[in-house]
Amino acid sequence: MSITNALNNAVSGLSAMSRMAEVIASNTANALTEGYARREVQLSSANLTGGVRIDGIARQISESLLQEMRQADAAASNATTLSTALSAIESMLGTPGDGGSLSDALSAFDSALISAAATPENATALSAAVDAAKGVTEKLNAVSEGVQSLRLNADTSIGQQVQSLNDTLAQIADLNKAITRASAVGNDASSLMDQRQALVNQIAEIVPIRSIERGGNQIALYTTGGLALLDGTAATIEFSPAHVMSADMSLAGGELSGLSVNGRSVTTTAGGLMAGGSLAAAFEIRDELAPQIQTDLDAFARNLIERFSDSSLTPTAPGLFTDAGNALDLTKEAGLAQRISINAAVDPAASGEVWRLRDGLAATSEGAASNATLLVALSDAFSRATVPASGSFSPAARSVTELAADLLSRISTSRQSAESRQSYLTARQETVTQQVLSQGVDTDRELQTLLQVEQAYAANARVIQAVDEMMQAILEL
Cys bridge to 70: 204, 263, 428, 472, which one at CB 3.0-4.6 A? Predict the structure, then answer.
């Protein structure tokens, strides 16, 4: 080997080791940076006589493992959203014994009716029974309003997620172009790819996606259902938030907005083009989960109204429990739990008289103070087993307390099932995430590599020094 070749080889080695040291420093500095992929300098022989050529900087990451992590993120996000919603609804109803539950309100009403029937002449007992009845209606009103608030929050969340999807897809499209331009002129586009990867991970929590490599280091994004979100250009996702929510509003009825992509209507239900992820969970809460619970609440309210009718009234007159002061209208059951109230005739706050609970809602004057016939009938109605006329309850006769317990049990069972699913999917997400992180920057390994780089740098420098000494010796001859 000639002196010139040796010198050229050493210089190329110094350049390569210097670049490797820079990459190692970048890896170490970004060890905890989200979306950062470890870099390695790609080297090859410069020529037949030796030397080193830098071919580029490669990002070290497993695309298959990254895809699996994104699927796990979407599933965990979906399960967490649903579990949180069911926990919130269960908290609204409350559990027996916590002092603010529907069961406790009903128990207080039952006890008040028994006391009033035992002492019909006691105005305080009658007032307590009226207050307890009002407590039941207020609890149903509050739970129903909470369910509709949950639906509205879900609708608002859909709008926010759609906006985030549109903005993020546009950013990824721009990064695709920037990466292609940088690669075309030989610049390192790794930092741009890191940014793109972080944005794709954000989308994956909203809707499960797959990334497909395209020419020029670009990527295309498709949902697992096969819908193109980005392939050259970003798709336009459209949704119109409702801003208000009531029990009679639905997607099927046209009062609520669905989802469309590039003008095409798409679904988020199982098997749909955009199924899975937090977006699908929000639609499920708004259009399925919360409406079904509202339906059962309305069925419970209807059962109350029907069982606590007053025999002294005409069939079309409202009983102790009313639909916002009116008689029950079976064609307007949606939202009944939000409107149920006690009859104004017994409500002192509405200029009513509590003695009408004893003497009849239509009574114009007080009757015999010792007459407990109607009070006993009301107490019997509370414990009488009747079959719910609507809702998703099974066709079995139940008392008021049993029907309330069934309602809470349904929600609790759904919540427990959702939490179990969430626990499994979260554990899976953590496992896959750890696998991805294990492929990231290992600072110990980087420092070991740096020591090797320093040794190689010193060796190449020694070659240059030796060449210099040889040249000096030749010149002194």
Answer: 204
**Are residues 128 and 233 part of one domain?**
yes
Average pLDDT over residues 255-263: 95
Query: What is the percent of the chain where pLDDT is above 70?
Result: 97
A 10 A CB-CB count for 346 gives 22
The answer to whether position 250 is within a domain reads: yes
Tokens of 226: 């096969």
Residues 118 and 133 in one domain: yes
| Cα separation, 53 vs 129, whole angstroms | 91
> Maximum CA pair distance of the chain?
140
Burial of 47 (0-12, 13-18, 19+ CB in 10 A): exposed
d(CA 463, CA 115): 105
Range of the domain at 462: 3-61+440-475
Distance CA 369, CA 64 (A): 81
Claim to verify: residue 165 and residue 47 sit in the same structural domain: no
Q: Are residues 381 and 458 in the same domain?
A: no
Backbone phi and psi for residue 49, each to the nearest 5 degrees, phi listed first: -90, 0
Q: How many CA atoms lie within 13 A of 103 on its CB side?
A: 17
CA 322 – CA 357 distance, rounded (Å): 14
**pTM (2 d.p.):** 0.86
**What is d(CA 408, CA 401) in angstroms, rounded to the nearest whole number?**
11
**Is there a contact between 266 and 260 (Cβ–Cβ < 8 Å)?**
yes
Name the packing angle between helices 277-284 and 123-184 (round to 10°): 150
419 neighbors 83 (Cβ within 8 angstroms)? yes
Helices 123-184/63-93 angle, 10° precision: 170
Distances (CA, A) of 100 to 93, 106, 113, 461: 8, 11, 19, 80
For residue 189, what pLDDT is reported?
85
Both structure tokens of 136: 């039941």
pLDDT for 268: 92
> Confidence band (pLDDT; 50, 70, 90) for 342?
very high
